[in-house]
Design a protein that fits this description.
Rossmann fold; 2 domains; 7-stranded parallel beta sheet; 14 helices; Glycosyltransferase_grp1; transferase; Glyco_trans_4-like_N; glycosyltransferase
């Protein structure tokens, strides 16, 4: 079997990962190759050399002075991304050596052009509906398109079922790298430092609970970090940087409880699965796919609506700390592993290429 994987182009598929999409892509490629599947990857510049990826780049993109000066000219990065995916899809139209194209990007063109490619096309839906991708899926389906779709959680799948038939393949973490730690006295929060992840709420919760907090992750919104987060640092709250897998696993494993505080509906909740793999229970807002990651033996879900959210979450820290760290690890191994995720995708590829998956 030969599988082509189309990654998102805006961030490299390399550690430390920009987010769950990049992590999924990296682990999927490695897992498939370990199972002796031939994989060709198209990914953003700067991706891990071990992936041997072809760079998603519009090459060459030459604009005349008249085209560049036209009033309809869009920002050049958007134009380059559009033509990069256009070039890949046009190439795949001519390829007869590919069994499955797995669109792991957020771009609409692989969906819109799926029926023009000889291979079966699978798209993983990583986010809620977007204004570019939703119409592309609806139009393709209305024209009798044969593309296949899965989502990273039941919650995310449900948000797309008004335009497509969507199954679920949940994301996975490498439980051989995210390994149990001894725990410790402090709380931990990890993720992109952006308003929708709300690390500032994690700070307020930690202070209400009277606990120290360590924050980790890439700065995704400089203005937000400078206005809302930097003034809160100190007095038991420390930002430790953007860590790789080993660093994050050590951070989770040496913490008492992880805080997951989204101000939006998380499509999956990968950080919660990573924490469980390290044996660390989770306090999370009951949003998006997080209730599918956690159960009563591994975390405490807090209703984000209602009064005194911070106080209720601080009280949940006490309850979460009593949970069995071994049960957290066991759930991650059984329900959240990369091995499970790769096997589910491989079974789907085999069914699609044999015409057994509608």
């Amino acid at each position: 079997m030969h599988v082509v994987i189309l990654a998102a182009s805006r961030h490299p598929v390399a550690e430390p990962f920009a987010g769950g999409l990049e992590s999924l892509t990296w682990h999927l490629v490695r897992g498939l190759r370990e199972r002796h599947v031939a994989v060709t990857v198209f990914a953003g510049e700067g991706s891990d050399p071990l992936l041997d990826a072809r760079v998603l780049r519009a090459s060459p993109l030459r604009l005349s002075a008249a085209a560049a000066a036209d009033v309809s000219m869009v920002p050049e990065p958007w134009l380059r991304e559009h033509h990069a995916y256009l070039q890949v899809m046009l190439e795949l139209q001519r390829r007869t050596d590919v069994d499955v194209v797995h669109n792991n990007s957020l771009h609409h063109l692989p969906v819109a052009m799926a029926s023009s490619v000889p291979a079966a096309v699978l798209t993983t839906l990583h986010t809620p509906p977007t204004p570019w991708l939703e119409p592309a899926i609806a139009i393709a389906r209305g024209n009798g398109g044969t593309a296949h779709h899965v989502a990273v959680s039941e919650h995310t799948a449900a948000s797309w079922r008004h335009v497509a038939d969507v199954d679920v393949v949940r994301n996975g973490v490498d439980v051989t790298r995210w390994t149990p730690g001894p725990g410790g006295p402090d709380l931990v929060w990890a993720g992109r430092l952006v308003p929708e992840k709300a690390p500032h709420l994690a700070v307020r919760i930690a202070r209400a609970a009277g606990r120290r907090l360590r924050l980790a992750g890439p700065v995704g919104d400089v203005g937000y970090v400078e206005r809302e987060l930097l003034p809160l640092l100190g007095d038991g709250v420390e930002y430790v940087g953007h860590l790789d897998t080993a660093g994050l696993a050590g951070l989770f494993g040496s913490s008492a409880v992880s805080l997951v505080t989204p101000a939006w509906d998380e499509p999956y909740g990968l950080v919660a699965a990573e924490s469980l793999a390290c044996g660390t229970p989770v306090v999370a807002f009951r949003r998006g796919g997080l209730p599918e990651v956690l159960d009563g033996s591994t975390g405490v879900l807090v209703d984000p609506d209602g009064p005194d959210l911070v106080g209720r979450a601080a009280a949940a820290v006490v309850a979460a700390e009593r949970l069995d760290r071994r049960a957290c690890r066991q759930r991650a191994v059984q329900e959240c592993s990369v091995a499970r995720m790769v096997q589910e995708y491989l079974a789907r590829y085999e069914g699609m290429s044999a015409g057994l998956v509608a």
